Amino acid sequence: MGQAGGGFGRRGMVAGAAGLVASLLVSGDATGAAGAGPDGGGERERGRRHGHGDGKPPRGRARAEDFRGMWVATVTNRDWPSRPGLSAAEQRAELTALLDQAVKRRLNTVILQVRPTADALWPSPYEPWAQCLTGVQGKDPGWDPLGTAVAEAHRRGLLLHAWFNPYRVATHADPARLAADHPARRNPDWVVTHGGKLYYNPGLPQVRRFVQDAMLDAVRRYDVDAVHFDDYFYPYPVAGESFDDDAAYEAHGGGFPDRAAWRRDNIDLLIRETAQRIKAVKPDVAFGVSPFGIWRNATTDPLGSDTRGLQTYDALHADTRKWVKQAWIDYVVPQLYWHIGFGAADYAALVPWWSDVVRGTGVHLYVGEALYRAGDPAAPAAWQDPAELSRHLALAADHDGVLGHAFFGARDVVADRIGAMARVVADHYPTPVRPPGW
Q: What are the record keywords, sorted (predicted)?
């Protein structure tokens, strides 16, 4: 603690300071597939954790609390480590350099991917060591990345959100390439091959219990500030393929009107049960989800947004709006990875839609921002303007449901190709602040 540029961490600490995640794969056509009901109850805990109020200032005023997050993707070494096989000292140095960059940019939260492909960045009794560390899944890297990340983040006044991908097993389709003792090899009936990748089957109750157990091990053992899920539930659609869960549907789908309703219930159960189990283990640990930015289009459902893109509810069987309305989650970070004025999915249309969804729920809304698109030659013209992202934050500031932003991803925060991140910091982050509720 005590380095320049920090803010307030939790417990009163005062410091000086998506294959790829689907966000990376979201294409300009707003499909997101370019590569990539029971009672609620979250409000009872949220009243304690956020008892100071809802964190919402009068419209247009600067916030004393603001979520400023940075995703650090480890799958395929997207953000960190820069390549597999670095020494423990080299990996640690790269990690702490990223944390220092977060402080420099006056961010206050790092969202670290700790379970990228059904493997772990900590010594897990459930799953092998992550391949991204050594290049060999199951090989001990010689240090504890998650434990170090938590300690070093907190020392800098940063929160550390542990990011888990629940169902992805591998970015390839060959089980023989997995570690010899990998649970997917020991339980081949748990696994479905789809789109050249391996996934755990969300329709099997034993799978749902196992992935929860594997993730909650980290919550029990480390002082993480939140559990964070990305946008992968059922996999993104692949042309000409269907997800082969016939046997699971036959065994467990009775009583549902169709397979889609059964699949949505499977994901609802994952979310609701995970939330309940987190609170049972550590009530002060938050639970957040970062879904694809479109729940449903208004042309499909009058409750949907004025968009014309892939629908999470239908394509991934993730009823993200319901999770907010039932307050099963503490925060939501929709990936609004499109520019202002984009016809199929206008940022300016989606921000007010999501702000309305969270109204009255107690669920915090943070907006996922596509920093990785700024200056990308393949991105639309709007993304060649260094001011595009700054305009996003200015627009969002007019909607009192928005309590902050998260930027994808860490390597783009560092590289900042055209200065878009620097512009955000100059325009909107003049001083460090603490995140809402901490």
A: Signal
Cβ contacts of residue 410 below 8 Å, gap of 6+? 70, 71, 72, 73, 79, 80, 98, 101, 110
Residues 6 or more apart whose Cβ sits within 8 Å of residue 129: 119, 120, 121, 123, 137, 138, 139, 140, 141
Q: What letters, b where the CB count within 10 A reaches 16 and e where it falls short, cover 367-406? A: bbbbbbbbbeeebeebbbbbbbbbbbbebbbebbbbbbbb
Residue with the bigger pLDDT between 12 and 69: it is 69
DSSP 306-341: S--S--HHHHT---HHHHHHTT-SSEE--B--S-TT
- For residue 409, say if its preceding peptide bond is cis, omega within 30 degrees of 0: yes
Strand ranges across the sheet with 191-194: 168-170, 197-200, 191-194
| Crossing angle between the packed helical segments 259-281 and 205-221, to the nearest 10 degrees | 30
- 2 sits in the region (left: phi over 0; alpha: psi -120 to 50; else beta) called left
Q: Residue 22: which of 372, 324, 269, 346 has the closest Cα?
A: 372
How far apart are the C-alpha atoms of 422 and 438, rounded to whole Å? 26
Predicted confidence (pLDDT) per residue in 350-376, tens digit? 999 999 999 999 999 999 999 999 999
Under 8 Å between Cβ of 192 and 244: yes
Query: Amino acid letter at 401?
Result: G
Q: Does residue 16 surpass a pLDDT of 60?
A: no
Q: Rounded distance, CA 25 to CA 31, Å?
A: 10
- Segment 228-268, tens digit of pLDDT: 999 999 999 999 999 999 999 999 999 999 999 999 999 99
Paired sense of beta strands 191-194 and 168-170, if any:
unpaired
Least confident of 38-47, 107-116, 130-139, 205-214: 38-47
Please write the tens of the pLDDT for every residue from 258-276.
999 999 999 999 999 999 9
Q: Is the pLDDT of residue 404 over 70?
A: yes
Q: 69 with 407: CB under 8 angstroms?
A: yes
Domains belonging to the chain, first-starting first, are: 10-428 (3.20.20.80)
For residue 223 the two structure tokens come to: 């002082």
Cis peptide preceding 81, ω within 30 of 0:
yes
Residues 64, 320, 394, 424: what is their CA dihedral angle, to the nearest 10 degrees? 80
pLDDT at res. 24: 32
